[in-house]
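Appendix B, record 7
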Amino acid sequence: MGTRVRTAPARRCAARLFAMVALSAGPVSAFAVVDCEQAGPTMEAVRRCVLDQQQQQVDSAYRSLARKLRQRNPDAAARLAKSQTSWAGFAGDTCDYVKTANPQQTIPSDAWLNCWVDFSQARVRILKKWEAQLTRPN
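Structure tokens (predicted):
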């Protein structure tokens, strides 16, 4: 029982720290953390929720652009699909490095997640930018 008493405050402190880091990362993360705080009793459940939300945002932005490209330029749509696969591999490999190197001395799972949030937010921004350029009148 003594162990639970000691770990519960540590878990709450870690959850608060994680929420503060995510909130400072930008509006997308802030939204994710607010929704994910109730995801479960563990930080792993919160991390999974944030990861799922980030992935949904990337997927949504990608699908929207890909759909328009398939109609207008099928060759570009094929290149985008290849680019998305390459990006996912690069982002995953980079975040694995960040988790292992852990330059900020954070919990390794948090280091990986923070990296992934940064990569996914950047990817959503660029996909939306490309879509806006595609739909902009000449």
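Remarks on this record: The chain has five helices and no strands. Residues 1-34 have pLDDT under 50 and may be disordered.
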